[in-house]
Structures are given as C-alpha cells and as structure tokens.
Design a protein that fits this description.
By secondary structure, this protein is of the alpha+beta class. The protein folds into two domains: about 35 residues; about 80 residues, 2-Layer Sandwich (Alpha-Beta Plaits). The chain is built from four helices and four strands. The longest helix has 19 residues. The C terminus is likely disordered.
Amino acid sequence: MSDLVRFGVAMDRTLLAEFDRRIAARGYENRSEALRDLIRADLTREAGEAGALVAGTVTLVYSNRARELVARLADAEGEQPGLVVSSLRTPIDADRTLEALVVRGAADVIAAFSGRLAGTKGVLSCDVTLAAVLDPRAERRPARTIAAPGSPIGRDEPR
C-alpha cells in the first residue's frame, strides 16, 4: 500500500502557468514529481545550513594559464582528508578546465573548502551543489576516482 498523501495547493494562475512551462521543459511528467524534487532540494539545503552531513559536488572552472594552480588545488584537497571522494577534470576549451569534485562531509566544512578554492588565483568560478543529506550512521565505502590522464588530483585508489 502506498504512503502517498494528496493535498491541494492554491496558486496564482500566472505563477502556475510559468511553473508548468518550466517543469515541462525539464521533462517532468506531472506537477507532483516537480514538487517532490523542489521539497527534497529545499530540505537538503536547510539541512546543509544546519551543518548536517551531506554529499554533493564542487564544480570549478579555472584558467589553464595560472601557474601552479593545480598544485594549490591539490594542497587544498590534502588539508581535508576524506572530504573529496572522487574527481573529474576535463578541458572545456584552449584556455579553461572544468573540474568536478564529489564531496562528502559536514556542510560547513564543504562551504569553507569551496570558499578556499574559489579564492585561489586562476579559479574563474566555483559552485557548490548539495545533493543529499547523509545518515551519519551509514557505512562509508571507499570511492574510486576517474580523472584525466596525468591529473595530479585524480587518483585511482580508495581514499
């Protein structure tokens, strides 16, 4: 038996029409799916603000011209052992590289880590996405990292 609860929502017609256009463009089949995702995202954001244990990503775009940038990024990662569980780096054009770091830890620690990365000379953008609240009792399995060949941050062993 399903544990779903039905409820009504009153909304301005114009706002609802905008919402319907947006969710259709994103591929939602119905409003319920979109509302569930919005609520989950809001609850994850709130838990992150409260310092919960979370999983997410830190996405960087940086200049290929900044000397020693990769070494500084690796140093920042090394100062927070276990925070970065996986990484992927790829050139996006001749001048810039995109790096996605999968992170797991206290939301405030992730925020401080991303702030340090964002302030590094040569980093053009740094965005944090909290994807899920984690149960602190859950078993942590070692992650495997897939990175571009020659990547000093990417590793192919458990962390």
